[in-house]
Write a structure and sequence with these properties.
About 65% of the residues lie in helices and about 10% in strands. By secondary structure, it is mostly helical. It has one domain: Winged helix-like DNA-binding domain superfamily/Winged helix DNA-binding domain (Arc Repressor Mutant, subunit A). The radius of gyration is 20 Å and the shape is elongated. It has helices at about 15-35, 40-55, 60-65, 70-80, 105-125, 130-145, and strands spanning about 55, 85-90, 95-100. α2 packs across α4. It has six helices and three strands, in the order ααβααββαα.
């Protein structure tokens, strides 16, 4: 039986938050390392943000990636060198630059996602049915916790 929000709920064990943090950090690190396309995680993160948001200004991209604009300028310059993004000046304001991904970037990101999903699927295949059921039941809460479902 699921407790409603109005019913008091027992306190979580003191080690719950640290265990959850450690498990999610280790899983995230494992997935990042497995999908390594040969460029830094900083570049992959910026590239994925551009792909997700569509054309984006350098300033907005810096905000989304939580870095200073000069750092983002260097990141985008490196992505341009690798032919993964194209930077174009805004027609109305030449001081504003718009960044878009190239088809090569789309392919690279798709490859990274496939490799990471395959690793996760292989790890999930080693779990028993009870563990899989527990993960499936916890998925909506984890999505809310991560801010995926607001």
């Amino acid at each position: 039986m699921v407790a409603s929000r109005s019913e008091p709920r027992p306190a979580l064990p003191a080690d719950f938050a640290p265990r959850l943090r450690l498990a999610t950090m280790r899983l995230a690190r494992l997935l990042r390392q497995h999908g390594d396309p040969g460029i830094s995680q900083t570049l992959i993160s910026a590239l994925a943000t551009v792909a997700r948001t569509g054309p984006v200004t350098l300033g907005r991209l810096a905000e989304l990636e939580s870095v200073q604009p000069p750092s983002m300028t260097r990141i985008v310059a490196k992505l341009e060198e690798l032919d993964l993004v194209v930077r174009r000046a805004d027609v109305a304001d030449r001081r504003v630059a718009w960044v878009t991904v190239t088809p090569e970037a789309e392919s690279l990101l798709a490859e990274v996602r496939i490799r990471r999903n395959e690793l996760l699927a292989s790890r999930l295949a080693n779990l028993d049915g009870r563990d899989l059921d527990a993960l499936e039941a916890a998925l909506p809460a984890l999505e809310r916790l991560a801010g995926v479902l607001a």
